[in-house]
Amino acid sequence: MINFAQTKETKKYLPEVNIGLVGHVDHGKTSMTQILTGKWTDTHSEEIKRGITIRLGYADATFYYCEKCKSYTNAAKCNKCFEDAKPSRAVSFIDAPGHETLMATVLSGASLMDGALLIISADEKCPRPQTAEHLKALDVVGINKIIIVQNKVDLVSEDQAIAHYKQIKDFVKGTVAENAPIIPVSAISGANIDVLIEAIEKNIVTPKRDLKKTPRFYVARSFDINKPGTPINDLRGSVVGGSLTQGSIKTGDELEIRPGVKVEEKWVPLTTKTIETIRSGQRVKQAEPGGLLAIQTDIDPALSRGDGLVGNIVGFKDKMPPTFEELKLDVTMFDHVIGVSGNQKINPMKAGDVVMLTVAIAKTVGVVVSSGKKVQLKLKLPVCADKGERVALSMQVGGRWHLVGYGIIN
User: Fold this and answer.
1) CATH code, residues 323-409
2) DSSP 278-298
3) Which of 20, 74, 156, 246 could form a cystine bridge with 160, CB 3.0-4.6 A?
4) Do the two domains 216-315 and 323-409 of this chain adopt the same fold?
């Protein structure tokens, strides 16, 4: 079941599945990522300064199983009997921001997830605003493999933990997570992490991958890796980072990037070829779904600076979804605004309304041109998407963007 690549120092296992960590701000998502993987994902300078996750963070872990103790661990040596454990599976964790102002980043990150851990802090009443909003986001984008992690149980008494558990059960009743396992843990002390790993292995299985499908790569980051002053002849092309959700990409493949770049008044797709692929930190000749993938291209590096290519889709020419500058949607609006107290009602969309749309990895703003059974929106930035694809819709409520419904592309 495990794919692996041989490095000079050691054998490392490539992730098979992407698992998101979502939930209210400061409920311990980044700490949970660290205890599972050993990596602290808040590395951007603004994240360190503010103490919150702003961008999507990636970190990989290999899980092991000790046959003697019948338990899972994230180390090659069992932490109970200290004997060698057998590798079970490698996974990649995506740490999504919890702050309400970054909801669009959560929605775009969910397009890369095969399953999710919903982190809920035991020392706060459930649900908190973004706990509810993130759970709704998972439902909107179709994530149904969910494990609820009741974190920070070390900060409450046993009776308080049990009462909080009942709050969680009441909260998820009737939702996509109604039957999800609830695992009490402490990310700080590592308590019950073996039970959490076992729940992940049993409940979030690796999806069946059809490598013969046309590849679909979502760009979550883009980089110019050249140092200042590099001679022109030594410049390396743009690097795009993200995840491959289907198919495979090999070194030398001819690729297209959509929507591409704006030339005068027209958006033009970019064509390039795969110079090199790095999957979860390892150089590979053929990249497959699972984990973070970076593709070295021959595109002008100036285009990738400052995440300039984020939101694009990469695939084979003539096998890409169309690019839309206007969208016509079959819209379903929620009864009330998720994540806002008071059950505030949502008014039907009308001409002139400004809406934030999240289409897979892409985020854009649209203005409602016409409304009714179908809603037509003119987009500020175009998106590359398939007809029938689901679009998350957010509107400003109290000066913040909140998830209000979803649409299906006609």
Assistant:
1) 2.40.30.10
2) EETTEEESEE-SSS-EEEE-S
3) 156
4) yes
Give 153's DSSP letter: G
Domain ranges of the chain: 3-203, 216-315, 323-409
| pLDDT tier, 382 (very low <50, low <70, confident <90, very high otherwise) | very high
Where does 3-203 sit in CATH, by number? 3.40.50.300
Per-residue pLDDT tens over the stretch 243-298: 999 999 999 999 999 999 999 889 999 999 999 999 988 899 999 999 889 999 99
pLDDT given for residue 341 in this prediction: 67
The H or E element containing residue 134 is helix 129-141
pTM for this entry: 0.87
How far is it, in rounded angstroms, from Cα 349 to Cα 404?
A: 10
Q: Is 231 exposed, middle or buried (0-12, 13-18, 19+ CB in 10 A)?
A: exposed
CA distances, 22 to each of 19, 102, 161, 408 (Å): 10, 12, 20, 24
CATH top class, domain 216-315: mainly beta
